[in-house]
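pls ignore typos typing on phone
zinc ion + seq
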Amino acid sequence: MASSSSSTVSKTTLREDLTCAICYDLFTEPVMLGCMHHFCKRCITAYWRSLRGPALCPQCRQEFPNKSFQTNYLVAGLVEKVKASSSAGYLKSLEKRLKDHLDSQKLRKEEIITMIREEEKQMDTIKKVGAELQDRVRSDFQALHHFLQVEEAAVLQQMRRDQEVLVQSLGRHLESLHAAVQELEQNLSAIQQAASSVSCSALVELPEFNSRPQLQVRRQDIDAFRSKYIIPLQYTMWRKMFKSLRPGPLPLTFDEDTVHPSLQLSRDRTQVVENEAMLTYRRNPKRFVQCVNVLATQGFQTGRYYWEVGVGTKPKWDLGVALETVDRQARVKLCPENGYWTLRLRNGCNYSAGTQPWTPLPISSRPQRIGIFIDFEVHMVSFYNADDMRLLYSFSNGPKEKAFPFFSTCLSEPGQQPQPIHLLHFPIYSL
Ligand SMILES: [Zn+2]
Ligand SMILES: [Zn+2]
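k done
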């Protein structure tokens, strides 16, 4: 608004500046006198003709020795511009330009309003997602807190019980000692009485000491009590807690019914490596026969699961999840559309996500262990560098039906020593 009113002011001033003080119209053939005032050539000539005396400026009354003036082409040009800008054609085109401008501004406004609505919707989505995540994080921490609270209460309760047993035992011992003292005192007085009357009676019956103080609470019992609770308590609890993690790292095994005949499984089915020759195998629709793949024995359909795979410095592999229904007899591209959610490594340093086309991932950390997490509630499959638990990639369109952990050793390059893939088991599970 400010710029449009200031341009109106400057235009009015310009028009006034270009107006002849004699005819009050825009200059026609403007000329400049020695005093720098301008007039139409025709107006000043007529004015001077009507004068009897010397030539003078009708504006400032300065006198001049002769009736001379200078044509001012600059002012003449400005006058032409102002006249042109006031012409009907110009005004019409200006009007059209303004209308076009108005229309385009209206359109732009509509576009921006649509953008605002969309962003407001996104804002709501972010808030909703944030609230859901908060609930999720809280509930995970609550589970940990709850575990610790229950364990703490149990340890303290057991400790109080143990303490009570010791106290009661010591109490009973004290009671029996007091009883013994009392008995001894009675005996003492009986003996004293007997001693004082020993001259009058030959028959003196000496009292017997009958009290049998119960077993004493030994120093060892107190030491045992102390050493039962002076322990690496946090580690002990952490080990218990590890087993209660939901999800904690699953101890998976390879499924020998699915393994490609060129792959060799270890006896405990936690390690797979390429074999030089094809091994004999039972025909079976579950077996991969085109690509050097294998699945885990454990499949999932609901819930949340996490497992870790040791890849060491192996330069090539594909890891992830495959639907139970994938065609094991065909050679297919690994992508969610074909029932595979995978992370892959080639040439020891090129990581990519199994989309079509591949999504290259800028991973420079060269993880030796890969963590894979599947959440059926939110249909997500995520990959982590299990060395530091940094997220590597996440699919948000994960499986909606039964799926199995998937592994491909890939074929080694000629001359390269095949390296195995390990299913990592944590010894803590068996403790
Ligand atoms: Zn004039
Ligand atoms: Zn003048």
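Residues 127-245 form one domain. Helices lie at 2-17, 41-50, 73-86, 88-196, 219-229, 233-243. more later
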